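To close the section, here is one more complete example, presented without commentary so you can practise reading it yourself. The ligand is magnesium ion.
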Amino acid sequence: MEFELIEILRSRCDVARADVRVGIGDDAAVLAPPAGHALVAATDTLIEHVHFPIATRPEDLGWKSLAVNLSDLAAMGASPAWAMLALTLPSADREFVERFADGFAALAAQHHVALIGGDTTKGPLAVTVSVIGFVPPGRAMLRSGAHPGDLVFVTGTVGDAAAGLRFPFEGLFQNEATAEACDALRARLDRPTPRIAAGQVLRGRASACIDVSDGLVADVGHLAKKSGVGIELNAPSLPASPALLQAFEAAERLVLQASGGDDYELAFTLPRAQEAAVMRDLAKTGSGATRIGRVVEGSGVKLLDANGAEIALAKRGWNHFP
Ligand code: ADP
Ligand code: MG
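Output:
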């Protein structure tokens, strides 16, 4: 049965790449990285209840488990190539694996990522994906490198995924517009878009970059710490989607934008002189960016209101071991 499940995964995720010399089916994969490139590797685990609601559809879980990993490669400015999948299932549920594989494969095909191996075991539902991509040597984008005077940006919009988590049930909505907004928010939670093309535009130009997985303020805080700088974020500038604007009042919206996780947008810093050219090139990738703050001397992240007064946040982001 285990081999039947592996075969379902193999046959549905059939991206062909010449650099995969031996893929699924032997004791290990054999890969031929392109000459003169550095490898960039990341791994992330999704656990039921912790990382996704129990009602998450298997195809969404397949998509998301790859998306969160590709997002880490995006934040490094890498081009993705290969993925591995360690799947732990409570039972040998063929239908679950088929649907999971379809969601995983849909995103893998978009980025031409080959599934090169993994492991299939029995236990409480857990999904671990690892990805490997390429970057020219010494050119990976890091969290360090932001300088006082740089500007801070974020791609897309923030807060949607956390908002999607607030509305797990249908039948709760007053009107059609709100119901549509809830669907859009939920879709952002279930099917995040890894900003691969944006990462490649930013590589070599952004002074620092991180993907927003734990919450904007928390993740920008990691960037500030690694760079040895402070960051001031301008709350009224944080970008909101039409759905978020429709479904939440300003105060609650700000909490979701500032500290909600799971958006998988890229937060990055740029020297001021680069702003215009980079914004132009990002717009061509289909994920524009918004200027949300600036890098200052010092440490930590401050969220400022329209008058420049600091806003206190009850929660800055997600932490597994608070
Ligand atoms: P081994 O016992 O040598 O670890 P397995 O039976 O676990 O071999 O796996 C057989 C082949 O199937 C290997 O190539 C492995 O990488 C691949 N594989 C197993 N599980 C998965 C999975 N969930 N996704 C992709 N490939 C898998
Ligand atoms: Mg094995």
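Once you have examined the tokens, check your reading against these statements. The longest strand covers residues 79-89. The mean pLDDT is 94.
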